[in-house]
Every structure is written in structure tokens, then in C-alpha cells.
Amino acid sequence: MMLLALAVLAILVIYRQFRQALFLALAAGGSLLLNVLLKERFRRARPGETWIYILSTPALPSFPSGHTMVSTGVIASLLVLLWTRGVPRSVRITALVSGAAFAIGVGVSRVYFGVHYPSDVLGAWLAATAWVSAVTGWMYPRLLPGTKP
User: Fold this and answer.
1) Is residue 148 in a domain?
2) Nearest to 115 by CA among 65, 44, 43, 41
3) What is the rounded distance in angstroms from the CA atom of residue 46 to the CA atom of residue 127?
4) Low-confidence winner among 50-64, 88-102, 135-149 (lowest mean pLDDT)
5) pLDDT tens digits for 101-149?
6) pTM of the complete model
7) Which of 56, 60, 77, 149 is the most exposed, having the fewest neighbouring CB atoms within 10 Å of its CB?
8) Would 129 be classed as within a structural domain?
9) In terms of residue numbers, what domain contains 93?
10) Alpha carbons 131 and 69: distance in angstroms, whole number
11) Does any domain span residue 51?
């Protein structure tokens, strides 16, 4: 997901879309940084099994789920960019449904493979969404409900 974000960031810079590039860097990159800070703060132990299915239990703390948080942060950031660019409604809705399905799939897979508790995934979804929403409100206040374009 970070490679996707970096690729889009590079495209935005090449096309001199600096405001959108800054938004993407703050929103997606901030999700990654927030994940690291929350893991350090909470230091929650992972589920007890050493080997589940084909995955070994990672050494990093469990809360919040890093895969879930970064994928949600990147997807949400890219969706906001679609809304700011005036992309046709049908494309935005398709991207929203696809992106939500992907983020949900990542979160569910983390629990399925036994490397996270459900609350780790829920916390990651909420934290990433809150972070991207805060950055969006700061950089694109016209997208907030009740504001006029």
C-alpha cells in the first residue's frame, strides 16, 4: 500500500499537484507514523499461538494492526483525492466500494490468520479513518458536511 501511495505521490509531484501531494503525504504517511506511535504506547501482546496456518507471530506489538491501519489510511487518502479532483460520481462510488472491501478484507485476514485480536483491527480502522478525516478537514474544509463548495 505504501508503494501505491508513493507512486501516486510521484505522479502528483510530476504534474505539479503540490497541494494534493502534501495531503497524501500527511494523510497516508501520518497513518503509518500514528500506527508506530500507538504500538509503542499500548504494547499489547499478540494472540498466544506461535504458528497459525502459514504465518508466524510477528515480534511487534499487536495493537493496532499495522496492515489494516496503513491500508485503510492509504485507501481513504486516495478516495479523498478522487473527491477533490472532480472525478465522475460513478468512478468515485466504485472506488469507495472497492476500497472499503479491500480494507475490510485486510482486517478480517489479520484476525483469520491469528496475528491480531478483532479489537486491534477495529482500532486500526478507527484510528486511520480519524487521522485521514482530521487531515481532510484541515486541508479541504469544503468537503465537510454542511459547508458550501
Assistant:
1) no
2) 65
3) 19
4) 50-64
5) 999 999 998 888 788 889 999 999 999 999 999 999 899 887 766 655 5
6) 0.84
7) 149
8) yes
9) 2-45+62-142
10) 10
11) no
